[in-house]
């Protein structure tokens, strides 16, 4: 039988793969440059701002309705994450029946909830108001204490609550920083800070003592009605010529 020979199959030479063209590296986006620090306010400018506030509103009043230091304390505790108008609507009837710690305890948590149920977080707040009333009776003789540390020791009361009560009830030169004061302090450059405490201390440092009694009210009202969060009313602002905000519209 004839021997069959097979021709070796010729293998095609492997075609070298084309080298991928090097992709030019995209230039790294430069990091955002930090905002240029605003020019600090001079003492004369700060004095001018608060002189204007005083001239426009010599005796500013807080908008939380109350009849004594205890009802003021309760109103401020209830105002957390709520509007003053909403709190006033609920407390008008409440304070007619419970304007002392003892009367509040006698009212009881369940009945208290019925009075304040239109306010956000009313269940927790009712519990705190009953607890702080009990503590006022057991530790402070039924009176609102006159130091920040003692007020802060009460259930539901923090630093802002203490500052409001000390200022409005006892005439202390304290600076209560709510969302309005925090915004105004930062936006105007008057007392920039990352936390309410930083803004508070910054304002206390620059505001002359003669204005401190009413300073937090002027700043709250300015933030609530003029220096609004979304659409500040720069055109009617009393201090628009001094304000450091780079986006002001005048």
TrEMBL record:
Amino-acid positions noted as binding [4Fe-4S] cluster in the UniProt annotation, renumbered to this chain: 227, 234, 237, 243
Keyword Oxidoreductase: no
Organism for this UniProt entry: Bradyrhizobium vignae
Gene Ontology biological process terms from the UniProt entry: base-excision repair, AP site formation
Methyltransferase among keywords: no
Protein name: Endonuclease III
UniProt GO molecular function: 4 iron, 4 sulfur cluster binding; class I DNA-(apurinic or apyrimidinic site) endonuclease activity; DNA binding; DNA N-glycosylase activity; metal ion binding
Cofactor binding note: Binds 1 [4Fe-4S] cluster.
């Amino acid at each position: 039988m004839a021997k069959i020979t097979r021709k070796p199959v010729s293998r095609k030479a492997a075609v070298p793969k084309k080298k991928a063209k090097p992709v030019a590296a995209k230039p790294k986006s430069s990091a955002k440059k930090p905002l240029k620090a605003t020019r600090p306010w001079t003492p004369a400018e700060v004095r001018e701002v608060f002189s204007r506030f005083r001239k426009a509103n010599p005796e500013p009043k807080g908008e939380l309705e109350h009849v004594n230091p205890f009802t003021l304390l309760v109103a401020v505790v209830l105002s957390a994450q709520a509007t003053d108008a909403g709190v006033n609507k609920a407390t008008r009837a409440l304070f007619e029946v419970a304007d002392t710690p003892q009367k509040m305890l006698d009212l009881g948590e369940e009945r208290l909830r019925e009075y304040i149920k239109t306010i956000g977080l009313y269940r927790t707040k009712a519990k705190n108001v009953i607890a702080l009333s009990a503590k006022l009776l057991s530790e402070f003789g039924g009176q609102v204490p006159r130091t920040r540390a003692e007020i802060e020791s009460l259930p539901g009361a923090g630093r802002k609550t203490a500052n409001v009560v000390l200022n409005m009830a006892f005439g202390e030169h304290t600076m209560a920083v709510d969302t309005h004061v925090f915004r105004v302090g930062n936006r105007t450059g008057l007392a920039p800070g990352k936390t309410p405490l930083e803004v508070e201390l910054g304002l206390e440092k620059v505001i002359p003592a003669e204005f401190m009694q009413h300073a937090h009210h002027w700043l709250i009202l300015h933030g609530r009605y003029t220096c609004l969060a979304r659409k500040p009313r720069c055109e009617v602002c009393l201090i628009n010529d001094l304000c450091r905000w780079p986006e002001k519209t005048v």
